[in-house]
Every structure is written in structure tokens, then in C-alpha cells.
Design goal:
This protein has eleven helices and 16 strands. The strands form four sheets. Strands 5, 8, 11, 12, 13, 14, 15 and 16 form an eight-stranded mixed sheet that branches. Strands 4-3-7-6 form a four-stranded antiparallel sheet, with helices on one face. 30% of the residues lie in helices and 19% in strands.
């Protein structure tokens, strides 16, 4: 702070300089003003140069570090923001959207905004995966709510919603959008049938009055999240198997079994509980009825034989992208909803061979890896077999607290993926903090791959809460209380050490 005397001295000095400038001649004043204009122009050019040069460098530096844009919370839209961040970490889903929306780019130059859910979703996911450089570090996803309202989904941005329910809304709406596209060319349009598939719609003429129907959609690629469940029933009396029933799913909703002291809850335990067999009594068995009829006189009627069947669910077709929903809703004895906060252990890699359906007598054997695919040998644990199979959800002992037990339980340190034919890699985790009445959704996701290796998988993880984005470790991800798990299918030869290394801090 200047004293009052110092301030008066500075003002008097400035006044004297101004008086000397005014007493100079016009030529001198003109030269001084001209120099000040030149200096101002140079300063403006320098400022513009700094903006042009350092601005892109800042963006490139941000992308090089692996950060992604955040999403603004429009009220209570953390459920939507967390789901979008999780989907943007699944490259197979983005590639499917690109193939699906290519029919619109071929048919019209610029589709109307918010007309198609696939186009809106693709634009958001590509921006969140840094495939398109956004203008801002925080994006607005209100366009997704607008296009859902056009599709008659009334989703308020001020009411708390569920991320898993929104996932079902998106997958079902994309399926409806595909079903609305014509799949067979109209027979009365002879000229269009004679034209090659690359013909433009403007070249099609109609032999009958009326507008020409839109060109047929030749998109047949299956939805990456769609799989098939098999329901198998076998008679316990005669071992007769009923016809297998197939049902489509877009996510596996797993209940969390009751915790047992000394045994941690794992994802494998939830999967085993999902496919566990159950007995169904008083079911008519056609085979038992036929066998009973053979021992009777001709013409005698035989009552339908009712026996007990064993019913079991398995996975008939595994999707490219696997979404696993851990059911954390439970009910108290008096009927009040409660949230289960138990930690379910899950792993970075997931093997699904044990849950795949195989025809009876045709179970494939383990595939022998080539020399290039040979994984590192698992260490021999005392009291266990030479090679330990890795259980999905069993983390490294260094990541888990010690559990009291009467006898030591061997835990494999290095997983063995050599015989896995259905291997999945963790891409994103959605976590819910709070209770059943209120809370907040956050997402752990992989950082996008670097520009030098666009087809690789980054080993850097991010923690995202709406607008906030920071780096996270794999240990933090595996220690979270997962609500949604997003896995993507990989080749059986993929090993954990084959991932892209974590980018160096700069």
C-alpha cells in the first residue's frame, strides 16, 4: 500500500509528464501516437498468436494425457451422464452405430436434428471418446432427452432416474428404429430392383402413381449388446430333455446372494447363482408317458405322466459388449425398499466359458494356444494343483483385506487365460452412491486410446462425476461398489500385459 504522500507524488509526476506532452509540437505528438498505434497492433497480433499456438497445444496436451469431456448436470441427470460415459468406452458399440447410421448419410445430405436416436447418440459418444474434438470441455446432453421425447419417452431432467432403466430405453429404442426401416424392396418398383445397391435414391422411378417408398435397409449387423439365454429342462426320471428355449437379452441382471462369513462375494458367485438349476415339480413328461403306454394293451388310454424336471439357464449366444447389472435392491421384512452396499469383487478380465450352453455330447475341449499366445505360467501354490484357474472377481491379495478363516484358501495371483474361448475385458463401471431414495451416479471408464495406437486399449482409468474428470487407478476401480459393469469381448490370446502402457505425466 502507498502512503498518501507517495500517491500525491506519483500523481504530480504524471501531471508533469502530461503537461510536457501537450506543450510539444504537433509533429512530435503525431509521431508518438503513431508509435503507440504500432505498438498496439503488435500487441494484438502477439495475443492472437499466443491464442492460436497455445490453445491447440493445450487441447492436444489434454488429449495426450487421456482426459475426456465432462457432461453438465441438467438437474438430476447424473444417471444419463454416467451411462453415456460408460457407453463411450465401448468401441464396438460406437462402430455399430457408425455402420447403422451410414444409411442416413447415404440417403440425405444432412438429416434433421433430433430425428434419429442413433445419430444423436453417435455424436455424443464420439465426442466423449475424443473421436470428435468438442468445442467445450463440458458437453450438454439435453439433445438425447429431446430425441427420446420425440420417441414418446417422457424422461424428466429434474427427477431422479435409474441408469439401468435408461440403458433398456436406449437399446429398445434403437431396436424400434431399426424395425421401422423397410427391409424388402417394393416389388412394383421394377427399376429399383434392376439398379445396383449403390444407386442413389434420385435415380429410382415408380411405374405406379404415388410416392416412391424409401429404399430398403440392408443393415443386418446384430446389436452388440444383444445375446441369447437358453432355458433347458430335463426330466429327472427318464433324463428326457425338452426343446431348448431361447430368449434375447441386452444385459444380465444378477442378484447378489447372501454373504457367507469368511467367503467374499464375487462376480463368479453371482453368475453361478444366476445359472443355478432349480426343480420344477408336476410337469408332464411326454417320454415317460410313451414308455408307460408301451406296457399297456392297445387302445388303453394312459394318463399323462407327471414328474419333476430340472430347469437351468445358460448363455446360448454371448454378445460383443456385455452389460452386467448387479441388483442392489432388496426388501425389508416390513416391505420397505433397501439398498445392498456389499462389495462384489470383479476382475479386469472375465471368462464366460463355464456359463456357455453346449449341445449334449458336444462340449468343446480347451483350445491349445500357439507359441506366440502362450501365457506366463501360474506359480504353484502350496496345497493346490500345479495350475490354478482364475475365478472371475478374485482380485490380487494385495488389493483385498485379509479375511479370517480357519484354514488358508489358495488364491491364484496370475490368472490363466490360455484355455479361455469367451474372454471379456472390463471397459467401464457405473457406481451409485446413496440409498434407494436419493443418490448420485459416477463412472469409472478407460481413457480413449492414443492417436498413435487407435486400435489399442488404454490402461489409464478415469473417474467421472458429471463435469468433474480425474485420473484413477485400476485398484480404485476394482475396489468400487459396482452397479453396472461394461465388458467387451476380446480375443482369447489377449493377455493383461499386452495393454497400452499408462501415458507418462508431462
Amino acid at each position: 500500500m502507498l502512503s498518501s504522500g507517495g500517491a500525491q507524488a506519483a500523481l504530480s509526476a504524471a501531471d508533469r509528464a502530461l503537461h510536457r506532452f501537450l506543450r510539444t509540437g504537433a509533429a512530435v505528438r503525431y509521431k508518438v501516437m503513431k508509435n503507440w498505434g504500432l505498438i498496439g497492433g503488435v500487441a494484438a497480433a502477439l495475443a492472437a498468436g499466443i491464442y492460436v499456438i497455445w490453445g491447440p497445444i493445450t487441447d492436444r496436451k489434454k488429449q495426450r494425457k487421456g482426459l475426456v469431456p465432462g457432461l453438465v448436470n441438467l438437474g438430476n441427470t447424473c444417471f444419463m451422464n454416467s451411462l453415456l460415459q460408460g457407453l463411450s468406452a465401448c468401441p464396438a458399440f460406437i462402430k455399430w452405430l457408425e455402420e447403422f447410421t451410414s444409411q442416413y448419410t447415404r440417403s440425405q445430405a444432412e438429416p434433421p436434428p433430433h430425428q434419429y436416436l442413433s445419430l444423436t447418440l453417435l455424436h455424443l459418444l464420439k465426442a466423449l471418446s475424443c473421436q470428435e474434438v468438442p468445442d467445450d470441455e463440458v458437453l450438454d446432453a439435453s439433445c438425447l432427452l429431446d430425441v427420446l421425447r420425440v420417441n414418446r419417452w417422457q424422461i424428466s431432467s429434474f427427477e431422479e432416474q435409474d441408469a439401468h432403466e435408461l440403458f433398456h430405453v436406449l437399446t429398445s429404442s434403437l431396436e424400434d428404429e431399426r424395425d421401422r426401416q423397410p427391409r424388402v424392396a417394393p416389388l412394383f418398383d421394377v427399376h429399383s430392383l434392376e439398379q445396383p445397391m449403390e444407386a442413389a435414391p434420385t435415380q429410382i422411378t415408380c411405374r405406379t402413381p404415388g410416392p416412391v417408398p424409401p429404399p430398403a435397409s440392408h443393415f443386418t449387423s446384430p446389436h452388440p449388446f444383444h445375446g441369447r439365454l437358453t432355458s433347458n429342462m430335463v426330466c429327472k426320471h427318464c433324463d428326457h430333455q425338452s426343446p431348448v428355449r431361447f430368449d434375447t437379452f441386452d444385459s444380465l441382471s444378477l442378484s447378489i446372494p447372501a454373504a457367507t462369513w469368511g467367503h467374499p462375494l464375487t462376480l463368479d458367485l453371482c453368475l453361478h447363482h444366476f445359472i443355478s438349476s432349480e426343480s420344477v415339480r408336476d410337469v408332464v413328461c411326454d417320454n415317460c408317458t410313451k414308455v408307460e403306454a408301451k406296457g399297456t394293451w392297445d387302445g388303453d388310454k394312459v394318463e399323462h405322466q407327471r414328474t419333476t424336471f430340472v430347469k437351468q439357464l445358460k448363455l446360448g449366444k454371448l454378445p460383443q459388449c456385455l452389460c452386467i447389472h448387479l441388483q442392489r435392491l432388496s426388501w425389508a421384512s416390513h416391505g420397505a425398499p433397501l439398498k445392498r452396499h456389499e462389495h462384489v469383487q470383479f476382475s479386469e478380465f472375465l471368462t464366460m466359458d463355464g456359463y456357455k450352453y453346449h449341445l449334449r455330447g458336444r462340449r468343446p475341449g480347451p483350445r491349445r494356444p500357439t507359441q506366440a499366445e502362450e501365457p506366463p505360467a501360474a506359480p504353484h501354490l502350496p496345497g493346490g494343483p500345479p495350475r490354478q484357474m482364475f475365478m472371475n472377481g478374485a482380485c490380487s491379495p494385495a488389493l483385498l483385506p485379509p479375511l479370517p478363516s480357519l484354514r488358508p484358501v489358495p488364491v491364484p495371483v496370475i490368472p490363466d487365460y490360455s484355455s479361455a474361448t469367451n474372454l471379456f475385458r472390463l471397459m467401464a463401471v457405473v457406481v451409485h452412491h446413496g440409498d434407494m431414495h436419493s443418490g448420485h451416479f459416477v463412472t469409472y471408464r478407460r481413457s480413449p486410446p492414443s492417436a498413435r495406437s487407435p486400435l489399442s486399449t488404454s490402461g489409464q482409468w478415469l473417474w467421472i462425476s458429471d463435469e468433474t474428470v480425474r485420473k484413477a487407478s485400476l485398484q480404485e476401480v476394482l475396489s468400487s461398489s459396482a452397479y453396472l459393469l461394461f465388458y467387451e469381448r476380446v480375443l482369447a490370446s489377449t493377455q493383461p500385459q499386452g495393454q497400452e502402457k499408462k501415458p507418462a505425466e508431462e
